Amino acid sequence: MTSRIAGGELNYPGIGATEHGLWPSGFQRIQVRAHLGDGIETYRRVAEGVLSWQIQRRSGLRVRTETDSVLPGTRIISGFGVGPFRINAPCEVVWVRRPLPGNAPQSAGFGYGTLPGHPERGEEAFEVSIDAAGAVSFTITAFSRHANWFYAAGGAVARAAQRYITSRYLRSARELTAG
Asked: Does residue 13 form part of some domain?
């Protein structure tokens, strides 16, 4: 058995809910959607970036993963900050959807859930889609709550940090449209 970069098990109810939309109660939910452009080439370029951790890397997070591409069960530790002020966020991929051949409306992306040591408990998903008219959109869906009293005490700061990193993820998706 190979060594994992993060230990423990997924620590929240509703595993896979970002794919199926059945949210567990008691969690804050967010969904942010942005139009990225048009055309199958844009869709495929962004899908490739989403499925190779580029959303996280381009957002300025320090990223350590077990694989170069997103696979079910893969663990990732993303982090921000400096030295003793670094916050690490270990997660495990719980679902993956890959692009299909052809130009039909479709979506690609993945969802990952929190592991012990993450400041939140819950799940976040990153999904790019193309509709019948060729419009390409990027959606971030998440549900979470604070992992412990320490993060709950800093609730306003923690939520501001979550909004900030979400805006960085959106910026990263826009960068991927340019190639």
From this structure: no
Can you read off the two tokens belonging to residue 83? 């030295």
Buried b (16+ CB within 10 A) or exposed e, 112-146: bbbbebbbbbbbbbbbbbbeeeebbbbbbbbbbeb
Q: How far apart are CA 70 and CA 112, in angstroms?
A: 10
With 0-12 CB in 10 A as exposed, 13-18 as middle and 19+ as buried, what is 28? middle
* pLDDT single digits (tens) 42-76: 999 999 999 999 998 998 888 889 999 999 999 99
- Kindly state the tokens that stand for 97: 């959807």
The domain that contains 124 carries what CATH number? Answer: 3.30.530.20
Q: What is the CA radius of gyration of the chain?
A: 16
What's the domain range around 49?
A: 29-177
pTM over 0.85: yes
Which of 38, 73, 40, 76 has its CA nearest to residue 55? 76
